[in-house]
UniProtKB/TrEMBL annotation:
Source organism per UniProt: Frondihabitans peucedani
Span of domain FAD/NAD(P)-binding: 4-335
Tagged with keyword Transmembrane helix: no
InterPro entries, per the entry: FAD/NAD-bd_sf, FAD/NAD-binding_dom, NDH-2
Keywords, sorted A to Z: FAD, Flavoprotein, NAD, Oxidoreductase
Protein name, entry field: NAD(P)/FAD-dependent oxidoreductase
Amino acid sequence: MTTRIVILGGGSAGLHTALALQKKRPPQSASITVIDPSPYMTYQPFLPEVAGGHIDPRDVTVPLRKTLRRSKFIQGAMTGIDTAAKKVTVAHVDGRTSDVAYDHLVVAIGAVTRTFPTPGLAENAVGFKTVEEASYVRNRMLSNIEKAAATDDPAERAKLLTILFVGGGYTGVEALGELNDAANAAVDQYPNLSRHELRFVLVEALDRVAPEVGPELSKWTLGALRARGIDIRLKTTMPSCENGDCVLSDGETVPAGTIVWTAGVKPNPALDGTDLPRGPKGHVNANAKLEVVTEDGKRVDGVWALGDNAQVPDLTAAKQPAYYPPNAQNAVRQAVTVADNILASMAGEPLVEYRHESVGTVASYGIGKGAALIQGVHLKNVLAWLAHRGYHLLAMPTYTRKWRILTGWITNFVSGRDETTLENMNDPRSQFVSLAGGVKK
């Protein structure tokens, strides 16, 4: 009898779980089905380089159908889980709804951008969690620079040349650093613009930036960014941003042409339509073996959870209780453990616990700039930047994508950064609709 393994999510956790199962299972013993609304996985650590213009957007994506040749892929969204009946309800992209039965269910639908009901946020800001958002931010910034060069209105010009980030964690600081370099290079193309007219503002509610790299490098990062002319407001929030006018809690209003929201993530809200046990922050509750468990420790038969949507105990931490942070380093390693435990469960063998001590953290703030903490060793600037590129190039799934990224870096090194503005990239039909005399629907 074939064991039905269903994986919800095609991100880092889900993709690597499927790859590990494809590699280790006997083909006749189990079927693998991966369900995700997107046909590709996005390697999110490279999104800042997409915004910076060093990597083509397609090169940070991994096509799921092509990569998971020994699995079935369903493009659709999970809308419900019935753990008693062991079935998943899926809304397909063609509008159909179906139930998918399982013997083992892996919940790896990740996290989404955490937002607040801030006036003007939905109308004027953009997140930074998808390749589409990273591309949008780049195109908007370049387009605004071009518009600034064409206007004689000092206030409008200043607004167009202001880029404001909300959230000074790992993602925000990396994206900010890359965009700062890209903006400086773009402004150099216009004789009537100066780098001094650019304004980058980072708003962070905490008293530090990039806490992931540790206290010492976090403090160094703050100084390094400020030395580049970036205006960093700590212990500050943005209560509203209507019409692009960012009202800050310190009393200042900053008119910004580009507003990027990187103020954290939360578990995928699709989990709300399930009967899975959840932790205090909404994550699926799991034990160290990555089995989904109730608050009193009872297993939910056949259900596993990992990655950003899971609360997994960190048994290696000195202070308990502790949980693993939601990052790609853990997601990829947890995927191997889940695959091993599913196969062990099928064979009636003992399960293993997920135990991983972090090898470190790497962060890039633009070409030749960065911070890294690797096994207790602090690296700064060029060495940290090289460590970042080397680590993530190795971690990028598939040899095809590794090669495309590497050759792209070499091309940029030889020919320089491409600062071409792609007009109407975010609304490509607008000109055609206007010419056709119709109303866009």
